[in-house]
Amino acid sequence: MEAIETIASLWIDEHPEYHAELADVTAALASMQDAGDGQTNPFLHLSMHLSISEQCSIDQPRGIRQAVELLTHRRDSLHLAHHEVMDCLGQMIWESQRAGRPPDGASYIACVQGRATRD
């Protein structure tokens, strides 16, 4: 497997709730169209895990690696930390799109750091 496929498989293993859906490619692709009613899109969720993993591996935006490490230590779980980082990442993207400007990496990192320093 390619490195990214190995990382993806590790995150898939962390999400058994997606296993049945991902086992049937046709059904999984069809469900992407119906991700309503509070359902999580497994492709979006897993791609966010991959994005955060990649950001940390290259420390881009600068400081994200340390912020995620602090949050991971605080939560005693990389998986739980990633889910909190997803909230910050989603907020940054939403604000960027709403304002029509580039994503603000500084506010993203500040959000993650804030979560790492509070209970």
The percentage of residues in β strands lies in under 5%
- Rg, Cα atoms, Å: 15 Å
Count of the separate structural domains: 2
Report the total helices.
Answer: 7
- Name the overall outline: globular
Describe this protein with a few key phrases:
2 domains, 7 helices, 119 residues, globular, 73% helix, mainly alpha
How would you sum up this structure, described in words?
- This protein has 119 residues and is mostly helical.
- It has 2 domains: 1-58, no CATH class; 59-119, no CATH class.
- It is 73% helix and 0% strand.
- It has 7 helices and no strands.
- It has helices spanning 3-13, 19-23, 25-31, 42-58, 64-75, 78-99, 105-117.
- Helix 1 crosses helix 4 (42-58), helix 5 packs across helix 6 and helix 6 runs antiparallel to helix 7 (105-117).
- It is globular.
Helices and strands in order, then pairings?
Elements: H1 3-13, H2 19-23, H3 25-31, H4 42-58, H5 64-75, H6 78-99, H7 105-117
Helix pairs in contact: 1-4, 4-5, 4-6, 5-6, 5-7, 6-7
Short précis:
By secondary structure, the protein is mainly alpha-helical. It is 73% helix and 0% strand.
